[in-house]
């Protein structure tokens, strides 16, 4: 298991681009503009994996 963070430079140029990994199948896509089926509830954002249909939520903290 490698924990290295993947850096993609061919995006909009924002260094704060975050990549989200599906905890179930390791599917990887950007938090914003990715392939996730996203639904936000205000306190948390739910991501639905298009690959294994697993859904999980990330709390909106800043
Ligand atoms: Zn998945």
Task: Give a brief outline of the structure.
With 62 residues, the protein is mainly beta. Helices cover 0% and strands 32% of the residues. The protein has strands at 19-21, 28-30, 37-40, 44-48, 55-59.
Describe this structure in words.
Keywords: Plasmid. This is DUF8106 domain-containing protein. The protein has 62 residues and is an all-beta fold. It has a domain of 27 residues. Helices cover 0% and strands 32% of the residues. It has no helices and five strands. The strands form two sheets. A three-stranded antiparallel sheet has the order 3-4-5, with no helix packed on it. The chain is globular. The relative contact order is 0.21. The model has no long low-confidence stretch (mean pLDDT 83). The site of zinc ion (ZN) has 8 residues, from loops.
SSE layout:
Blueprint: E1 19-21, E2 28-30, E3 37-40, E4 44-48, E5 55-59
Antiparallel strand pairs: 1-2, 3-4, 4-5
Bound molecules: zinc ion.
């Amino acid at each position: 298991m490698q924990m290295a963070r993947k850096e993609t430079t061919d995006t909009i140029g924002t260094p704060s681009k975050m990549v989200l990994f599906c905890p179930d199948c390791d599917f990887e896509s950007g938090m914003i503009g990715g392939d996730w089926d996203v639904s936000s509830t205000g306190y948390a954002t739910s991501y639905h994996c298009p690959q294994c249909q697993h859904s999980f939520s990330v709390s909106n903290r800043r």
